[in-house]
Amino acid sequence: MRHFVFSIKIYTGYLMFAAKLMERMEFVIKAISHLAWSLILEGILLLALGVLVYIYPTLIIVLVSVFLLVLGLTIFCIGLKVKKYSKIKVDF
Fold first, then answer.
1. Nearby residues of 63 by Cβ (< 8 Å), 6 or more positions away
2. pTM of model > 0.70
3. What is the mean pLDDT of the chain?
């Protein structure tokens, strides 16, 4: 009887391990699926943007200027946050 109870405990332990493993695998599979769809949509967007730039060549000027403005603003905000939370004093 003891051997039977011990084997049931081991069996339920394996079942719990398998269930946790399946949950982790489902999470990974969902993450890969989301990544694939993200890449597909990003590719479609870049293709459409390429066609628009081919049709309207002046659009590239606007896109590059907006990109540089957003990038500059983002880096500036990150710099302010780092300066605020860093212990190193930087004098300008």
1. 49, 53
2. no
3. 81
